[in-house]
Amino acid sequence: MQKQVEYPEAIKTKYPEQVVIAIARDKNGKANPVTLGWTMIVSGDPPMMAIAVAKKHYSIEAITRSKCFTIAFPSVEMADAALFFGSRSGREVDKFAEFECATEPARDIDSVLLTDAVANFECTLQSQTGAGDHFVFIGKVVCSHTSTEPKKRLYTIGPGHKLGPAS
Amino acid sequence: MQKQVEYPEAIKTKYPEQVVIAIARDKNGKANPVTLGWTMIVSGDPPMMAIAVAKKHYSIEAITRSKCFTIAFPSVEMADAALFFGSRSGREVDKFAEFECATEPARDIDSVLLTDAVANFECTLQSQTGAGDHFVFIGKVVCSHTSTEPKKRLYTIGPGHKLGPAS
């Protein structure tokens, strides 16, 4: 049976929720990573993926300017990096300088990949739609990469940014 | 270390992936459920959610016509229903007539809720964006419901529509 509840109560049933780290270069060329839980695939052919980014986030400017971004699936070992990239702003800090996290150049876009991620997807910006307090960016996947070692994907497994493996 | 691979290979790292059942009424008033893995929250205030639906799906017509839809989080007990609703077309069958699945009326939109789901979100259509072979529908959540009994959410846990709990 269903009972009506407030949205914040109902949405607590969403866990585990996938986590990605999106990366785009700002106007100074600085690669800026941001941790996001609101992401999905949107097309199979061609492959396309979407991310929702808070309108106040520094990443908005970087993505709209560079018109491309990386979507990385962080591994469970990257929980601290995901927390750091999700809690600090690129307006104030150079996140990759402050938190050690191996990167390597992307192949087809002007961005970087996360060396220790489960997978990285290079995306070119296709569209941007306002939705409440976020922008939805849709990107076409132009190049894909996976880890050479087996790794488990990181999820948010409970409220308060509790991160871990899904199982 | 990362190695470049084809997209179908890289995207295999996505599991577990959340599953929702979206429901909208067609022009004859028939409530038509479709199972989707491509969904995300897109706004916190106001709460908004997005779904990506294949352009060829019967649900496209129902959602664009009725301008509202339910997003249900199926429970693990609903795996067979999720498979049925995801593999048949509302053009050919009345899915709720063919597969027993308890429903109840929505409160604020002209749709139904899934009685045995973990949660149900009533959404009014805010925008529609084409993205490759899918349309992305963004809905504003106008009413939320959860199960009165504790239930586990259903996920796709591997290729070939392998469904189960995330952990």
Description:
Two copies of one chain form a homodimer. Chain A has 167 residues and is mostly beta strands. The first copy, chain A, is built from four helices and 13 strands. The first copy, chain A, has helices at 7-10, 59-66, 79-87, 95-98; strands at 2-5, 17-18, 20-25, 31-36, 39-43, 48-54, 68-73, 103-105, 112-114, 119-131, 134-147, 154-158, 162-165. In chain A, the strands form three sheets. Chain A has a seven-stranded antiparallel beta sheet with strand order 4-3-7-10-11-6-5. In chain A, strands 2-12-13 form a three-stranded antiparallel beta sheet, with no helix packed on it. In chain A, strands 8-9 form a two-stranded antiparallel sheet. In chain A, strand 12 and strand 13 (162-165) form a beta hairpin. The longest helix of chain A is centred in the middle third of the chain and has 9 residues, at 79-87. Chain A is globular, with a radius of gyration of 16 Å. The relative contact order of chain A is 0.23. The mean pLDDT of chain A is 97. At the A-B interface, strand 1, helix 1, strand 2, strand 5 and strand 6 of A face strand 1, helix 1, strand 2, strand 5 and strand 6 of B.
Query: How many strands of chain A?
Result: 13
- Give the strand content of chain A: over 45%
Distance, first to last CA of chain A: 28 Å
Mean pLDDT of chain A: 97
Query: Helices and strands of chain A: which structural class?
Result: mainly beta
**Helicity level of chain A, as a percent range?**
10-25%
| Major protein interface | A-B, 62 and 62 residues
Oligomer: homodimer
The number of helical segments of chain A is 4
Gross morphology of chain A: globular
Spatial strand sequence of the major β-sheet of chain A: 4-3-7-10-11-6-5
* Low-confidence sequence ranges of chain A: none
What is the radius of gyration of chain A?
A: 16 Å
Secondary-structure element order of chain A, N to C: EHEEEEEHEHHEEEEEE
Q: Report the biggest beta sheet of chain A as strand number plus sense, adding barrel if it closes.
A: 7 strands, antiparallel
